[in-house]
Amino acid sequence: MSTEVEVVSSSSKIIWKIENISDLNSVIKLDSEVFSVGDFKWKVQIFPKGYGKVYNCLSLFLVPVDLTKSVNAQFSFAISSQSGNISQRVRKEVTYEFPERNSTSYGWPRFILLSELHDPDNGHIINDTFVIRIEVSCRMKEDSICDNFKESDSDKVPVSEAKKKQSSTLLEECPSAGKPFGEGQYSCKVGFGDDKEFEDVGGFSILKTQVPLYRQIWLKYGHIATNKVMPISAYALLVMAVRDLMNSIIDMHQCRYVELSSGMIEGWEEMVMMAEKFEFNIGWLRERLETVKKPLRVAQSRVKAAGDELKKAEAQLIAAKNYLRENVSGVLSQSDMEMCLDIGENLLLDGLF
Q1: Residue 42 contacts by C-beta under 8 Å, 6 or more apart in sequence?
Q2: How far apart are CA 179 and CA 67, in angstroms?
Q3: I want to staple 122 with a disulfide (CB 3.0 to 4.6 A). Which of 15, 78, 88, 226 is the partner?
């Protein structure tokens, strides 16, 4: 078995070529060579038979090497079909803040099913070899950008003031994005550490079925829960509150505007108000809920206006019938007049064809 890492500076990609795949059957973990991105060093880890309790997937992780300061890294892994089948390309991308002086890896325990990886029709493995393509860029807190795979400061591409300002604004709006819960101060989560229904996401316990969406929220806005109202000693209550709120968020995420109802809005509003009382980090959710309410308010306003017009029309119809009764009562009999009123809106030739 042999591996080869090729740094392609011009395309800002790292290509990791892994040969003799059949020899990996007895290998638990395989590390790539260490490579540099600006001032930072990294390596990639693969678990050929899966990581932890995952047994049917290839697991892929990015690992910092000798990290001395926190860094926000945007990275992606891709495995393509070597036979040219574009539809079989698997690529995943994420942004994660690696904490200072920490070698914690981050990535995907379930990157690709082993059955798909080894399926000869997909073309991922040819001649007992497959290739992983990696892209990495990193940003420090002071917002200095490290150009992809440039090893010297002189090779760094300058960042425009506009981009710096934009990036700084994003950091100010979501300062807790991707950070561990409670800044990583709390290592003991009583009652949930071994719970099979929950999974740790950035130091906070999340129901496993909610993890994919919650991870996206955490990486963009930070953790939902805070300890501003409920202390960390009430951790179980925090977890339950976030679980219930996530149920509403998932419902919103899966709902189309045409499916909206007043009952849905009322239920979501109740959950958001509860979270606001706990001073949870949900400003982004409140903003979107208010946006969602607007078309429903417009629709309700139009329905009310149509109802008012219908009432006016009904009143006018009643007045017209009363007028007819008063003015033709001397010409038609009561029964004839009632028949005229009943058939008044019928077409003259109804029933003939």
Answers
A1: 34, 35, 36, 62, 63, 64, 65, 136
A2: 16
A3: 88
Cα maximum dimension of the chain: 109
pLDDT band of residue 336 (cuts 50, 70, 90) is low
Alpha helices in 48-126 (DSSP H): 114-117
Please write the tens of the pLDDT for every residue from 33-73.
998 887 888 899 999 888 877 888 889 999 888 888 888 88
Q: Pick the closest to residue 297 from 257, 348, 337 (CA basis).
A: 257
Rg (CA), the chain: 32
Distances (CA, A) of 333 to 192, 323, 330: 84, 16, 8
CA atoms of 115 and 132, how far apart (whole Å): 17
Residues forming a β-bridge with 108:
60
Distance CA 4, CA 40 (A): 20
- Can you tell me which residue has the tokens 């926190």? 70
Residue count (the chain): 353
Distance CA 241, CA 202 (A): 17
Q: For residues 41 and 93, what is the distance between their CA atoms, to the nearest angstrom?
A: 19
Q: Which of 198, 46, 22, 166 is nearest to 107 (CA)?
A: 46
Q: How far apart are CA 175 and CA 169, in angstroms?
A: 10
Burial 142-156 (b: 16+ CB within 10 A, else e): eeebbbbbbeeeeee
C-alpha distances (whole Å) from 287 to each of 167, 205, 244, 259 are: 21, 25, 19, 20
Tell me the per-residue pLDDT of 300-317, one tens digit each, with 9 for 90 and over.
567 677 777 888 888 888
d(CA 316, CA 319): 5
Q: Could you tell me if 76 and 148 are in contact, meaning their C-beta atoms sit under 8 angstroms apart?
A: no
Q: Cβ neighbours of residue 293 under 8 Å, at least 6 residues apart?
A: 265
Can you tell me the distance from the alpha carbon of 291 to that of 47, in angstroms, rounded to the nearest whole number? 44
- What are the backbone dihedrals phi and psi of residue 5, each rounded to the nearest 5 degrees, phi first? -110, 125
